Amino acid sequence: MTDAPRAIIVGAGIAGLTAALAMARRGLPVRIYERAPELTAVGAGLQLSPNATRLLARLGVLDALGDRAVRPQAVELKKVDGLSPLARIPLGAEAETRWGAPYLVAHRADLQSALLQRAQSESLIEIVTGAFAEKAEFHKDGGVRLRVERNGAAEEIHTPLLIAGDGVWSHLRRLVRTAVRSRFTGYIAWRATLPVEQALVAGNGALEADRVTAFMHPAFHLVAYPISGGAAINLVAILPGEVPLNAWAQDADDAPLKKVLARASPALGRLAAADGASWTVWPVHAVNPADAWTSPQGLALIGDAAHAVPPFAAQGAGMAIEDAVVLANFLALHRDNPASALAAYEAIRKPRVTRVARRGAFNRFTWHAGGPVAFARDMILKARSEDALMADFDWLYGFDADAPENL
Q1: Which pLDDT score is estimated for 99?
Q2: N or C: which terminal CB in the chain sees fewer CB atoms within 10 Å?
Q3: The pairing of beta strand 220-227 with beta strand 212-217
Q4: Residue 127: which residues within 8 A CB-CB, separation 6 or more?
Q5: Which residue ranges traverse the bilayer (predicted)?
């Protein structure tokens, strides 16, 4: 059986790499096993609100990300009917002053590259690719016995702590839960990117290159924002539907999507049908945050493995980053008692993630509302000041996972 560092992380995504960096910051050595032979990112854009960027800055990741991330100047909510603005939430310098960190939008590949660059520069972090964590079980003497297949050979590793950052379809989740499968929400996310000038021309005034624009309609909502240093616009349309497989980035016939968007708005229809808009469909899955995240025998779930939340609050990456930092902080605080660290991590994170999930559910309900509910929503949004709208996010964006009260 192979010796291992005090912790092994399975999965080199956002959650796993952030956890490794946060542990290295606390002087804790860690090894990452990643199934892919090479670290390549999937997906398109993501939003990084101040609760996440303040932590990435302390880990040196924002410096590595550089100008590939964009600082939008506002979030603007629009009705698809007439494309009239209903509300504007200032971002940019005003948001950074209020919440103490920037609001950024970026391509997922750029964030993962920045995380990987930082991780590879840390002597306490070892990254092993092409390694499939085939089987895991708790050891009778404590810790976890992990069977890893790599280069056609298998080895067994005994680690005091296993951190599962293996995503929404985690197979390590079964160690602490009886219901291990994620739940399909009934929604699918269609994603595409367009060169910024092409998107602006196709949208014909429907969107701007310096902000996050959310278009609301009873049948769907569409979010657009700049990525890749402002060179492209990321488009995400979320609507009810079905997909055949539990897999990201599936190829599918996008004709139904284009029909729905064109019927709702000619401008959005042009965006959907623009040359080069290659739409990829992603099933939106959820994992119940109320179920167990940890075992005192030596297992912690982080990110989507613990609590995949649908993207209606744009906090999937943010919650994974917070998880990683909080877990590392407790492991450092309770170096000689990892069971106490795991219990504290789960106890403090569950209420936070549950509240975020509820906010996402509220957003989905209001953004997809029709009839009298939509009328009331519109009246409320129009009546509220920008400062009042910003205040609604103080609990979310102003949160500091590193603060003493979170230890």
Answers
A1: 98
A2: N
A3: antiparallel
A4: 12, 20, 31, 32, 34, 39, 116, 119, 120
A5: none
pLDDT digits (tens, 9 = 90+) for 142-201: 899 999 999 889 999 999 999 999 999 999 999 998 778 899 999 999 999 999 999 999
Task: Output the six-digit token pair for 397.
Answer: 């964006």
Amino acid at 162: L
What CA–CA distance (Å, rounded) separates 289 from 353?
A: 7
Q: Which pLDDT score is estimated for 178?
A: 78
Contact by Cβ (8 Å): 79, 138: no
Question: Does residue 190 contact residue 279 with C-beta atoms inside 8 Å?
Answer: yes
Rounded to two decimals, the pTM is 0.95
As a whole number of Å, the end-to-end CA separation of the chain is 35
Question: Could you give the CA distance from residue 204 to residue 358 in angstroms, rounded to a whole number?
Answer: 35
Residue carrying structure tokens 């009260």: 405
Q: Shortest CA distance to 202 belongs to which of 259, 257, 266, 264?
A: 266
Read off the pLDDT band of 217 (50, 70, 90). very high
Q: Please state the three-class secondary structure of the chain as a single string.
A: CECCCCCEEECCCHHHHHHHHHHHHCCCCEEEECCCCCCCCCCCEEEECHHHHHHHHHCCHHHHHHHHCECCCEEEEEECCCCCEEEEEECHHHHHHHHCCCCEEEEHHHHHHHHHHHHHCCCCEEEECCEEEEEEEECCCCCEEEEEEECCEEEEEEECCEEECCCCCCCCHHHCCCCCCCEEEEEEEEEEEEEHHHHHHHHCCCCCCCCEEEEEECCEEEEEEEEHHHCEEEEEEEEECCCCCCCCCECCCCHHHHHHHHHHCHHHHHHHHCCCCCCEEEEEEECCCCCCCEECCCEEECCHHHHCCCHHHCCHHHHHHHHHHHHHHHHHHCCCCHHHHHHHHHHHHHHHHHHHHHHHHHHHHHHCCCHHHHHHHHHHHHHCCHHHHHHCCHHHHCCCCCCHHHC
Residue tagged 């997909």 (tokens): 243
Strand ranges of the sheet holding 280-286, from the earlier edge strand across to the other edge: 85-90, 74-79, 212-217, 220-227, 232-240, 183-195, 280-286
9 residue type, one letter:
I
pLDDT of residue 142: 86
Task: Give 151: exposed, middle or buried? Use CB within 10 Å, 0-12, 13-18, 19+.
Answer: exposed
| Alpha-carbon span 87 to 71, nearest angstrom | 19
